[in-house]
Each structure stands twice: as structure tokens, then as C-alpha cells.
Amino acid sequence: MRWLLALVLGFAAASAQAAECREEIYRDNSYTICEVDLTKETLRLFLRDTQGEILGHFGTIDEALAAQNKALGFAMNAGMYHEDRAPVGYYLEDGIEAQRIISSDGPGNFGLLPNGVFCLREGRADVIETFAFLDTKPECISASQSGPMLVIDGALHPKFLAGSTSRYIRNGVGTTKDGKCAIFVISNNIVNFYSFATLFRDHLKLPNALYFDGSVSRIRAPSLDRDDIGFSSLGPIVGVVKDAPATE
């Protein structure tokens, strides 16, 4: 019976570490929402392997983690990238900076200021508007800059229009005021920025939220049996790292 007890306890521990994912309808749009408790789970950013090659896929990251007796749980693309998969904006991974912060405006969604930074610290995660990030200089362990901001201190991005016809699959992240919870969302149908941002502000009640990307958006949500593969590799990826399942 000891083996059965160990199995049950192991299953309970694994469940406690898993991101809570669900599907919801809000204002006639469908979303997949995953909540990560930073006080219980480990979130990491991924871009390249130890040889400097782009990881690019959830499965590739999972294989790399297996060598460390770890496994990838929930995951999502985490910021815009160039054709060579290098980050467009600031990128910091385990204390090593791969791209400086970009504070100027410009073409495309990234340059639609204000944009922001997703910052991972010990036991917390925060979405911080870029100029506030430059002013406060938080000591992030890892960070990824993207844009535009969806919600800034409780307000929607000022350039979003309710009637916009620019509609895509979109994904992003919002964080609670205390930084203990990061909530990741991907739309299951095409939406405009206004609808996507309103979900974070009015439904999820998050003070700050950041857009990650559009048509390339993908998610890995094991609790929902979802693992988007895609034909092309991604740039930055964020994911929950957990202990690998025990084997006999």
C-alpha cells in the first residue's frame, strides 16, 4: 500500500504545481486563461539552448529540461521577435541580457507606445510600463519587453478603439498588484485590441497587462490537453518548470 500512497501524494504534489487553465467566454469571445501562482510555481523565460541555438518550440524546451530531470508545464510565446527569432525588445534570461531595452516609438504593434516589460523576480512577476521600468530599475531575474501595453494602472491603452476592424488571435499576460499571480491569456477566436484589453481590465481585474503577439500566438496547457505546435519556431517563450515525473 505504500506505493499507492506515494503515487497519490506524488499526483497531489504535481497537481499543486500545475498552472490552472480554463476556457471562458467573455463578451461573445472565447479565451484560454492560465493562472500561475508565483509563490508555488517556477516561471522561466527561454530563448536559446546551451549551444546558442534557438529553442523555438515547447517540445524542444521540454527535451532540454529532461536532461536536468525537469519538465515543462504550461507555456506560451512571450514577446515579439525578428525573422532570426532574436527579441525585438529588451530580453534578459537568468541575469544575462540578450537585447537592450527599446524606449522609442516606431512602426508596428511593438512601437505603439506605451509598451512594457514582463519582469520575473523571486516569487513574483510584474508587468511594468517601459518608462516606469527605466525609472524604477527593478532587479529582474529574467524579463521580456513587448507591446503595446493592454492595461496601464487600471486604464486601457489610449489608442485602442472599440470598433477596430484589426482582429487576430492574440495572447498576453497580466499580473496582480502584489505580483504573486501572473495570468496568461490567448484568444480562441480573432479579437481586436480593445476587446482583448477589456478582458484583462474588466473581467480579470488586473491593473497591468501586456500584449505578447498576434497571429503566431501559441500555448501549451497540459491540463486542457492543448499543445500548439505550429509550423515555424518561436522567439522568447515563457513556461512553468516542474520536477520530471518519477519513473520506475
The percentage of residues in β strands lies in: 35-45%
Low-confidence stretches: 1-17
Largest sheet: 7 strands, antiparallel
What's the shape? globular
Number of helices: 4
| Order of secondary-structure elements | HEEEHEEEEEHEEEEEHEEEE
Ends apart, CA distance between termini: 16 Å
- How many beta-strand segments? 17
Secondary structure: helix percent: 10-25%
Q: Which structural category fits the helices and strands?
A: alpha+beta
Order of neighbouring strands in the sheet with most strands: 1-2-13-12-14-10-11
What does this structure look like?
The chain is α+β, with helices and mostly antiparallel strands and 248 residues long. It contains 4 helices and 17 strands. The chain has helices at residues 2-17, 58-66, 130-136, 193-203; strands at 20-26, 29-37, 42-46, 70-77, 91-93, 96-99, 116-121, 124-129, 142-146, 149-152, 155-156, 171-175, 181-187, 208-213, 219-221, 226-227, 237-243.
Q: What's the structural blueprint in terms of helices and strands?
A:
Elements: H1 2-17, E1 20-26, E2 29-37, E3 42-46, H2 58-66, E4 70-77, E5 91-93, E6 96-99, E7 116-121, E8 124-129, H3 130-136, E9 142-146, E10 149-152, E11 155-156, E12 171-175, E13 181-187, H4 193-203, E14 208-213, E15 219-221, E16 226-227, E17 237-243
Antiparallel strand pairs: 1-2, 2-13, 3-17, 4-15, 4-17, 5-6, 5-9, 7-8, 7-9, 10-11, 10-14, 12-13, 12-14, 15-16
